[in-house]
Amino acid sequence: MARENGEVTDELIRLYRNLAKGQAGLIIAGFSYVHPSGKSFKHQTGIHDDAMINGWKRIVDEVHDAGGTIAIQLAHGGIQSVKEKGTRYLAGPSGGIRNYINFTTSREMSDSEIQETIESFGAAAARAISAGVDAIQVHAAHGYLGSEFLSPFFNRREDSWGGTDEKRFRFLKEIIAAIKKSMPDDKALLVKLNTDDNVKVGGITPQLARTYAGWLVELGIDGLEVSCGTAAFSPFNVIRGMAPYDDLARAFPRWSRWLVKPAMKRMIKPQPLSGEYNLEAANLIKPILGKVPLILVGGVRSLARMDRIIQDGAADMISMCRPFIREPMLVKEIMEGKLEAVACTSCSRCFAAVFNEIPLACYVRGLPMEK
Predict the structure, then answer these.
(1) E strand residue ranges, 141-234
(2) CA atoms within 13 A of residue 242's CA, in its CB half-sphere
(3) What is the pLDDT of residues 181-205, one digit of tens each?
């Protein structure tokens, strides 16, 4: 919903103002790219340049005026970035990894590129702080660059950036150090961490995520959100439920759709939404976090289950995405006793809209999905 150069639009400001009016406890804004090389979608928000600060300040001011709090989510797409015209090789931890979504093969990042990217996270955080955000979340999940370095599937290096768990963790560790340089004491630093890449061989597992979580606690983070899946290699593990193959195929030229749709069905299998699909990993990780809050996302759909998860101590906060796209006022309605379960059917047409480069919305209500 941003402009093509990453600038905030009036549509985005209205979206976040409505979420704040709906009494969401903390809004974690959709991920923003920290460097031009790490843009993942055409209309993704950016925080890669000082010119982005004023737009973010407008969002923050509207959220605060409505009584809300907001975090910005910092990300670099890595090998899941936008494929620019004429580009075959997108940079990531290791080369030779074939991405069948954007039809590219990865190129190994150099030491200088890695250092530049780490610095870009620190600079982006400083911009976000100057815009007045309440918290910063580092996106180290879903197969974007932060989780690529953590994952043995993506990170096949044998230098100081890979080869052991400690070396794969180094990239995220240095990002956190760069961000902390501009973090005042009254702002929170959160991390979104993959607990399972859901790839066939060599990805992050819940046990490895537990190790990483312990190291993150030692670095002094203020909250950990646990998730799973990768956008290009296991997208329906990220967003479980129905698979909108017809809508996803619309993103491709009309002449190719008859080939694309069956290919997607073969390569990308939907995962049924049967409860809170990150809860088992949360139960493994929660005991080592100490006083650091755990945020659970993925498949939480009823007030009764939210209550049970919190009372059982499996998580400290409940996070949702698709339900808020359909019902931005759902927390207010829960507080007023009007809502026992969310209306979201997990059809994922909202996800398909992003893939089609059209505005994010709940399209289950019959809205046509056309560019």
Answers:
(1) 188-194, 223-227
(2) 15
(3) 999 999 999 999 999 999 988 999 9
Hey, what are 353's tokens? 């809209």
- Average pLDDT for residues 216-225, to the nearest whole number? 98
pLDDT digits (tens, 9 = 90+) for 39-51: 999 999 999 999 9
Is the overall model pTM greater than 0.90, yes or no?
Answer: yes
Give the list of residues 6+ apart from residue 85 with CB closer than 8 angstroms, or none.
none
In the chain, the domains with their CATH numbers are 10-365 (3.20.20.70)
* Tokens matching residue 126: 């400083």
List, in order, residues 6 or more apart from 324 with CB less than 8 Å away. 19, 22, 24, 330
**Rounded to an integer, what distance in angstroms lies between the CA atom of residue 251 and that of residue 370?**
10
Given this model, what pLDDT does residue 365 score?
A: 66
Relative to beta strand 27-28, strand 70-75 is parallel
The two most distant CA atoms of the chain are separated, in Å, by 56
Cα–Cα dist 156/166, whole Å: 13
Q: CA 103: distance to chain centroid?
A: 22
Residue carrying the six token digits 């759909």 = 301
Neighbours of 334 (CB within 10 A): 18
Confidence band for 32, pLDDT divided at 50, 70 and 90: very high
